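Example record

One chain of 238 residues, shown exactly as stored in the release files.
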Amino acid sequence: MKTLIIVPTLNEKENIKLFIKKIKIEKLKFDILFIDDNSVDGSQKLIKQLRKKNNHIHYIFRPKKMGIGSAHKDGLKWCYKKKYNFVITIDVDGTHEPKFIKLLINNLKNNDIVITNRFIKKNSLKDWPINRIFLTYLRYILVKVFLSVPYDSSGAFRYINCKNIPLKDLLLAKDNGYSFFWESIFLLNRKKFKISEVGIPMPYRQVGNSHMKHKDIYSAFFYLLWVFVKKIFGKYNF
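Predicted structure tokens for this chain:
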């Protein structure tokens, strides 16, 4: 069965090195697709070097920062075009440890998608800054209350059965930023796809800086309100 790992990047050269090292340690022989938004730190040069050494590594270089959700959409389109059976989406910043990929795979049985949950296990965010823990938990509560989503839906670490979920349903989410993640789970849940969660610890980024800005937080809140209003007025009747 063909499996693809989608890895969005933006100035993550050092984290890419660590990620590839961890993939080798776990002996994960899957194809990897990097989607880079015009990094200026040498990430693209490194990715090209990795490709020369390993034809299981692929890349899409985009002309500018176009959003994490947009990167996932482009990766999913590429995945389905190449007829992969399964796809894994993962952040390269160190918060998503490749050693847990096998756990996600083992939980896909009788499900369409497996996502990670940051609240099942106690202290899974223990080394995160208190403000980031607060924002993550607040988003979880708001999405749960406003949209009736019973999952930790905003995480990007996922395992998807491409045979069971059509591409058009994965692309229903309109947002191209961070809200893509909870919006996509909200829509997949409404369409009655089988969603499973696994609790894993998520260490805070050790190398580089977060790409999330204050404007991303504000826009995400207002976007959540917009989706809530659309839900109330029956715009998601499918």
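Notes: Residues 3-232 form a domain with the Spore Coat Polysaccharide Biosynthesis Protein SpsA; Chain A fold (CATH 3.90.550.10).
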